[in-house]
């Protein structure tokens, strides 16, 4: 990677004020995106605005089939601008808007996986669209496309040399860039068979990781017969080595679940697989997928496009029937034309198990589901034009998961849903026009119901007595029926504040999360202390609130946002293992409150202009080398780290409060160990709400350390904030 960076820095010529477009060209799987990501990570903070647009060709394939080329360009430019300037609902009357908005801004733009000229015409047609010193990086497999666009600064990603390929393979097979004793010749033989494509080296290196020498020797003859130097045969070899259940999980991800959230996918597949989580980790260990942590509650499953294509080809050619000619008989349908053929021809849907139509914003009518008796999952997330569900959904009696989140035109649900006795999860978050749920039904299997942001819902949802997780924040619900006392499975109840609650002692014994959004409230009502199991307190826009008093001792999480008068924290935590305090845009906090947060919380976000002096190791930027006083011998050490963040966009108004959340990641490596990360716990990333100016993120963790020199690297995802400083000290 160092050699790639040296070449790219020369092409970027960052000291020059000219606007420059640079192409990164090479075959799929050679590492173009990886190089672009490293560049973006290193240099994005030096630009006024920056964006990494992933896999743009997928956006072209998912555009409405009836759209012409001009409208396709409009949609691409709209998506580009909405991300780079954080304006989600902007209108584009013409294609000149990008130039109008960005011609005085120094920007860094990475356009990944470009495969059509209209993509460049829509987003970066000319250098004069951007301010002095801007850099536009394009990754593509098509050199002619770059030349046709007048891009002469092109970096061709060459295949690694034989020795470099050998080192790459060893990193994934042995965790170091050389083989273990006794494996030298075997590693050379396998590398020669694989060729020099980095993706193949990574996948096959992971395949051999942990095998004994005897297993390597036994595998070589089969390798020599099966591999023909094509990447497809290399990847297929790794697929064929999986057990049948892991093969099936691989195909599910390739066809349905790529780039989706891991826990949700795990829930969907729990009844079909013995141990989905273990399957994910096994595929990740084999480098067939990547599990990317994006937030404390969101890990994304990522699969390389070559592996996705492999999986879909396997399904298309699966033996046993003429699945190529008869798409209705396939295990999965992923091609839009095949799906349209099935739905338009009224093909019986008895084989249908999962239907994903998320973000189909023009969808107004669902097909007849009368024959969909085996349908288990129906995902209609962000189908914003859908006003209703067909009554035939009642025939889908095996339905387990129904996602209607952000269906903002949905007005009502059919009473036939009462027949969905196996439904476990019902997501209705953001259905802002929905006024009520069907009455007199009992969905006996329902354990999860989310009505967050269903602003018009007034009646408490008594549609199941077996619910475990009930989310009613930002609804108009003000009453909790006494019958809830008999809901023995209920473990989580989120409510919005209402004075009515103080008259409902049965509710005060059950509520676990309470949300306030009262601009006139000057103090937390005394009766809130009586909520005996309160775990999370959320306050937003309570502009006259000055003090947070002592509340329930079960409280472990406090999230406060845009409470501009808040000064004092007159409470203490009990011995809860997790003590999280988020105080965003609360700039009047006094010194005592800040010190309390620093000493009492396990993680915190609060306004600050500097890294505290008690952090032994401090540095400008996003990384720091820590030299421990002694050399640990495979021991667990505890640390506290901090990151000083500042808003990226120069905008000091309340509009910043509506921008996207920033995600902060930590990566720890030991000096001299290439490609090997240090394990740390809780091993998650941190969500930072939109900030108006500088804030400090601090958190405690423990790490398994075998060296006295550790490199702590912090990264952010999102365009809302940048890292100014960081710090670490050993506890």
TrEMBL record:
Name the Gene Ontology molecular function terms of this record.
ADP binding; NAD+ nucleosidase activity, cyclic ADP-ribose generating
Q: What is its EC number?
A: 3.2.2.6
What catalytic activity does the UniProt entry give for this protein? NAD(+) + H2O = ADP-D-ribose + nicotinamide + H(+)
Question: Which Pfam family, any one of them, does this sequence belong to?
Answer: NB-ARC
Print the keywords alphabetically: Hydrolase, Leucine-rich repeat, NAD, Repeat
Q: Does the keyword Mitochondrion apply?
A: no
Biological process (GO) annotations held by this record are: defense response
The NB-ARC domain extends over: 9-176
What is the name of this protein? ADP-ribosyl cyclase/cyclic ADP-ribose hydrolase
Species this chain originates from: Arabidopsis thaliana (Mouse-ear cress)
């Amino acid at each position: 990677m160092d050699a790639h960076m040296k070449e790219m820095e020369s092409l970027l010529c960052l000291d020059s004020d000219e606007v420059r477009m640079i192409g990164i060209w090479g075959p799929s799987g050679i590492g173009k995106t990886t190089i672009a990501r490293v560049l973006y990570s290193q240099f994005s903070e030096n630009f006024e605005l920056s964006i990494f647009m992933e896999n743009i060709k997928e956006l072209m394939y998912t555009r409405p089939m009836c759209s012409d080329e001009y409208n396709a360009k409009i949609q691409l430019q709209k998506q580009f601008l909405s991300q780079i300037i954080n304006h989600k609902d902007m209108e584009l009357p013409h294609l000149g808007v990008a130039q109008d908005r960005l011609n005085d801004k120094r920007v860094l733009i990475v356009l990944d996986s470009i495969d059509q000229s209209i993509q460049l015409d829509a987003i970066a047609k000319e250098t004069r669209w951007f301010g002095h010193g801007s850099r536009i990086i394009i990754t593509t497999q098509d050199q002619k496309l770059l030349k046709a666009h007048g891009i002469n600064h092109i970096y061709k990603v060459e295949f690694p040399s034989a020795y470099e390929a050998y080192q790459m393979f060893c990193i994934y097979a042995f965790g170091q860039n050389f083989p273990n004793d006794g494996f030298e010749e075997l590693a050379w033989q396998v590398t020669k068979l694989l060729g020099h494509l980095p993706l193949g080296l990574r996948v096959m290196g992971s395949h051999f990781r942990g095998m004994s020498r005897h297993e390597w020797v036994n595998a070589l003859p089969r390798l020599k017969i099966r591999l023909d130097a094509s990447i497809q045969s290399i990847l297929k070899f790794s697929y064929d080595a999986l057990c049948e259940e892991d093969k099936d999980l691989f195909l599910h991800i390739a066809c349905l679940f790529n780039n989706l959230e891991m826990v949700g996918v795990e829930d969907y597949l729990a009844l079909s697989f013995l141990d989905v989580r273990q399957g994910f980790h096994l595929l990740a260990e084999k480098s067939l997928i990547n599990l990317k942590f994006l937030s404390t509650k969101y890990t994304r499953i990522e699969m390389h496009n070559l592996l996705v294509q492999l999986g879909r080809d396997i399904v298309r050619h699966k033996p046993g029937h003429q699945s190529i000619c008869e798409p209705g008989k396939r295990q999965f349908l992923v091609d839009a034309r095949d799906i349209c053929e099935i739905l338009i021809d009224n093909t019986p849907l008895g084989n249908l198990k999962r239907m994903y139509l998320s973000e189909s914003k023009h969808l107004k009518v669902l097909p007849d589901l009368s024959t969909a008796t085996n349908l288990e999952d129906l995902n209609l997330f962000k189908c914003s034009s859908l006003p209703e569900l067909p009554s035939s959904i009642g025939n889908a009696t095996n339905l387990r998961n129904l996602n209607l989140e952000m269906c903002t035109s949905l007005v009502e649900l059919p009473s036939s849903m009462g027949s969905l006795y196996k439904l476990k999860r019902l997501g209705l978050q953001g259905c802002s026009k929905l006024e009520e749920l069907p009455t007199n039904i009992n969905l006996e299997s329902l354990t999860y119901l989310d009505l967050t942001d269903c602003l018009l819902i007034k009646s408490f949802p008594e549609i199941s007595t077996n619910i475990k997780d009930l989310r009613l924040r930002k609804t108009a619900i003000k009453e909790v029926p006494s019958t809830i006392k008999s809901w023995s499975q209920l473990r989580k109840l989120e409510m919005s504040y209402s004075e009515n609650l103080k008259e409902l002692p049965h509710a005060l014994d059950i509520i676990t999360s309470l949300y306030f959004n009262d601009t006139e409230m000057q103090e937390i009502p005394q009766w809130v202390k009586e909520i005996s199991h309160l775990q999370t307190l959320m306050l937003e826009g309570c502009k006259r609130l000055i003090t947070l008093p002592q509340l329930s001792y079960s409280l472990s999480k406090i999230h406060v946002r845009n409470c501009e008068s808040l000064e004092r924290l007159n409470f203490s935590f009990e011995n809860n293992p997790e003590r999280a305090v988020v105080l965003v845009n609360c700039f009047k906090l006094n010194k005592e409150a800040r010190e309390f947060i620093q000493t009492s919380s396990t993680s915190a976000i609060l306004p600050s202009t500097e890294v505290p002096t008690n952090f032994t190791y401090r540095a400008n930027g996003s990384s720091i080398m820590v030299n421990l006083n002694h050399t640990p011998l495979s021991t667990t050490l505890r640390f506290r780290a901090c990151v000083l963040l500042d808003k990226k966009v120069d905008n000091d108004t309340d509009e910043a409060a509506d921008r996207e959340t920033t995600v902060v990641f930590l990566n720890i490596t030991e000096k001299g160990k290439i490609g090997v990360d240090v394990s740390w716990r809780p091993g998650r990333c941190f969500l930072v709400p939109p900030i108006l100016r500088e804030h400090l993120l601090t958190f405690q963790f423990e790490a398994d350390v075998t060296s006295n020199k550790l490199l702590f690297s912090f990264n952010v995802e999102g365009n809302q904030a940048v890292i100014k400083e960081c710090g670490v000290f050993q506890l």
